[in-house]
Amino acid sequence: MAINLPAIGASTEKSGHGRHEKLPSAAADLCSAAPGTVGLGSVDIGDFIGESFLFLGAGSTVLLQLASPGVGHGVADHSSTLHRPMDRLRTTMTYVYAVTLGTPDERRAIVRMVNKAHVPVHSEPDGSGTTVPYNAFDPQLQLWVAATLYKNGATLYERFFGPLDDASAERLYQQSAVYGTALQVKPDQWPATREEFEAYWQHTLDTLEVDDKVRRYVHALLHGGDSPWIVQLGLPLNRFVTTGLLPQRVRDELELPWGPRDQRRFDRLMTTLPKAYRLVPRRVRWLPSSYYLWDMRRRLRGGRHLI
């Protein structure tokens, strides 16, 4: 499977800084479309990756990743997220936007920096036999991270814009392999079909195990770490949405309480919110992704760090 990223949902134009991709315009036609009426094969990853609704799924995506022992221990041991939560959000979203909307040079730059940041992220056996083995360059761990990015993105898209037709769903799935193949995941390690992906997804969910160390880290993360006070104001809603988007088995592993009343409230929210969201102009909805891309390009021009 080949991923031809420059063609993903974008055209190129000449600017004062060389060639760069325009933000996709195909999604503009989707904003006024009723759910379930998207045209045949009309959606690809570039049409929705910049939508702000994806931030709703950021928390649940991270928790799904942390529920994998290798990822969870690697992050708990090495990540600065609790101390610099907003900066870590920036770097994560910069990676996502760079590999999907960036130029080839921008993608190469972000991949180099991610690889450099991953060098120290590995465990050393301590002789007790209790150390969880992990290595940030492990393609199986990267595959799970990529899978969560695809799964939550596609699920949220359908919650907000209605079911994808088969051609669009297939194109989105194949393009989403880039989350992993930009790093150490080989193209043939990405499940060949959506059916194979669902089998991989369910098997992985069924075998996830969370220990007390990762569980404590997750609970600290859900309470914001050292977030600015203005971010702290939104944490109760963020915890609620994050928990609601998780499969029940992962909630149980993480010991996140969730009952019938929570589910009813969540269902009402996810019925009302997409209707309101579709009324917001697309340029406004894409402001966060536009900002992160602008910030990435500013940092690259100034020789500043991205990761």
TrEMBL record:
Q: What is this protein called?
A: DUF2236 domain-containing protein
One Pfam family, short name please? Answer: MPAB_Lcp_cat
Q: Which residues form the signal peptide?
A: none
Domain ER-bound oxygenase mpaB/mpaB'/Rubber oxygenase catalytic, by residue range, is 52-273
InterPro entries on file: MPAB/Lcp_cat_dom (IPR018713)
Single GO term (MF): oxidoreductase activity
Q: Which organism is it from?
A: Speluncibacter jeojiensis
